[in-house]
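Re: the 322-residue chain
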Amino acid sequence: MLTGLSAALGAGLLWGLVFLTPLVLHDYPGFMLAVGRYLAFGTLALGLAWFDRRALAELERADWVEAAKLALIGNLLYYATLASAIQLAGAPVPTLIIGTLPVVIAVSANLLDRRRGGGEDSAPWLRLVVPLALILSGLLVVHIDGAAQNGAGSRGDYLLGLAFAFCALACWTWYPIRNSRWLRARGPGLSRAWATAQGLATLPIAVSAGLGYWWWSVLTASGETGFAWPLGPRPMQFVLMCLLLGLAASWLGTLLWNKASHLLPAALVGQLIVFETLAALLYAFVWYSRWPTPAEAVGIALLILGVIAGVRVFRTRRTSTG
C-alpha cells in the first residue's frame, strides 16, 4: 500500500509539470507542445527500450495493439480534445469537468469491480460516499474559485467546447482503468517495460500528428505557418522542456503510475489522480509568486482529506479480506 501510494504521488508531481510548461512557453501553440512532448517521449523510449528488450520481446501482437490504443486515446486524443475545449469554451469550465476525474474514475472502476464479483478491489458504495464527496467538494471549490476570477468562455463555440471537454474526460476515465486491468492481469516487473512500450507506440502517432499540423498550417495560412517551424521562436527552451516532459512526465510518470496501478485497486488509483491537481496548483503558486486564496486553501484541504479517507476505506477492505 505504501509503495503504491508513493508511486502515485511521484507520478502526480511529475505530471504537474505539464501544467507549468504552457506558462514557460506561452508563445507556443498548445498542439505543438503536445506533439513535442510525445515526440520526445517516443524518441527517449527508443533508447530506453534496450534496457527492457527481453520484456518487450515477450509482448505479443495483442499487447502492442493495446499499447497503441492507450497511447492514442490516453495521450494524444485526450490532450487534443482538452486543448480544443479550452480554446472553444475557455479554461475554467473544461478544467472543472476534467477536475472531476478522480470521482468519475473511482465510481466507474468500483462499478466494474463489483459487477465482476468484487473482492479486495471493490468497496461498498456507502463507504465511498465520504471520500468521494470530499474530493468532489475540494475540486469544485478550487475550480469554481478559479472560474470566478478568470471568467467563462465564448458563446458561439461554447457547447462544442463542452463536448470536447467531456470527450477528454471519457478518454482519461478509460485510460487508467484499462491500463490497470492490463497490468494486474500480468506478473510483476512490467511497469517500466510497459511505459516504454507505450512510448514506442506513441512515436509514429506523434510524428504523423506533427506532419499533419504542419501541412494544415501551410494550407490554411497560404504558405505561412505562423510558427517558426519546427522549433519555434525559442528552440533551446522548447527542446529542453519537451525532453523534460518526455522523460519525467511521460516516461517516468507513466512508469510510476503503472507501479501504482499494479499494487493498488483501480478505484483507489483513480482517486489518487488528485496528486496531479495538487502538484499543478503548487507549481502555479510558485510561478506566480503568491499564496493560495482562502477558497483554494479550503479546496486543497478537502482534496487531501478525501484521499486520506479513500486510502483508509481500501486499506480496511484489504485487511478484512486478507
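Residues 2-321 form one domain.
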